[in-house]
Amino acid sequence: MIKPFLNDNFLLQNSTAEKLYHDFAKDLPIIDYHNHLPPDEIAQDKSFASITEVWLKGDHYKWRAMRSNGVPEKYITGDANDKEQFLKWAETVPYTMRNPLYHWTHLELQRYFGIKKLLDGSTANEIYNQCNEALKTPEFSVKGLLQKMKVEVVCTTDHPTDSLEFHKKEKGTVDDLKMLPTFRPDKFVVIDQADFLEYLEKLEGILGQDISTFDDLVSALEKRIEFFHSLGCQLADHGLSQLFDVKFNRKNLDWILQKRKSQKKIKRKEAAIFQTALLHELAKIYHEKKWTMQFHLGAIRNNNSRLLKLVGADVGADSIGDFSQAKGLSAFLNRLDAEGKLAKTILYNLNPRDNELFATMMGNFNDGSSAGKIQWGSAWWFLDQKDGMEKQINTLSNMGLLSQFIGMLTDSRSFLSFPRHEYFRRILCNLIGKDVENGELPNDINWLGKTVENICYKNAKQYFNF
After folding, report:
1. Which residues of 175-198 are buried (b: 16+ CB within 10 A; e: fewer)?
2. What are the residue ranges of helices labelled H in 172-238?
3. In this structure, are strands 178-180 and 182-183 parallel, antiparallel, or unpaired?
4. N or C: at which end does the chain have fewer Cβ atoms within 10 angstroms?
5. Which residues of 74-88 are buried (b: 16+ CB within 10 A; e: fewer)?
6. What pTM was estimated for this model as a whole?
7. Which domains does the chain have, with CATH numbers?
8. pLDDT at 57
9. Number of other CB atoms surrounding residue 224 within 10 Å
């Protein structure tokens, strides 16, 4: 018998999975501890003029699919109007079958707008109008959308020079929603980036001080960490290609910084030394503040120079890199652990070949101070789909403790992306349910249900203690 598409038991292939999802996972709140949502739109409780604005603007997943389907850039990031862009996306959707976008698109239409029709060229006008009518109502403002998905916490991603003015504004509200900043110092860590000096000058201006030495830079960033901390920040995040196994000393570091300030070309090894040293100093400050540090490793970004020049960065021209990860990651964590300065840490890999590497690496540095202190993070970016999530869950189960996993996040720029938590929860329940029905796990629904609740919500709540 053919099952209906996207029914109540979507992705749940047996009765145990159905019970675990519907009785234990379905109604849990969401802690979204890593995303790229704009803080101003949350604090101002923005309302959207059209489904295109809330759904397509900034969504590089959809942009990549549209380009692959032969849609001209005019209808993706160009000057076509909202309806024209939406129609082009609608025409693309049927061609995304077996890509996670097909599932996400229809989950989002159902969960937010109650629309069960399939989106394609023939239904596009009707769905466009229905969504736009809904978006005119108060419950479809930003906070309405978050409340609809039971979102408790969102941790935005913020540059050290950000004013955090909207976090200040939000802190004074009585909303149930918590919006907290995340410290993302990549622009200072990667010294050979083109805009390093621009951001260094900006930091000097904010603090009213010259940054001439490595210690000056560490001190300046520590002041910004204090500022972030005062507004509830408890996480740092780093999006890097890899970590390095290199030695460093203060003399070399000052010289490298002065060389960069003189606008001389930085050698690859010099950049690696500077990155390693600065991350080490920052990590010690995170530990002192009892923050959690995250490392997103393995992306090769902005591959298409034509698109970078035409549209900008982060527009769907990134891919999985084949960087070496083990030695640098081990050396970095070991140095901090040996000094007693290793903070709670979440590691994310983009290359699936590194799954076992990351799953075993995190087990080396758990020290008994807290359950799951070092985490292997959820399947990230190109891997946050059914196959990628299943592989991550299975590998973690084999090489760590799935029961202590802190679960899913959106890593998204869209306020309509929160059904990804549901997607993860269904996949998790289905895998556990399958093991029970195969006789590989005991049919102890209460314990398994508690484990599901923990992974989907309670572990993160305890881990971060927001």
Report:
1. eebbbbbbbbbbbbbbbbbeebee
2. 186-189, 196-207, 214-230
3. unpaired
4. N
5. ebbbeebebbebbbb
6. 0.97
7. 15-47+149-464 (3.20.20.140), 48-140 (1.10.2020.10)
8. 94
9. 22
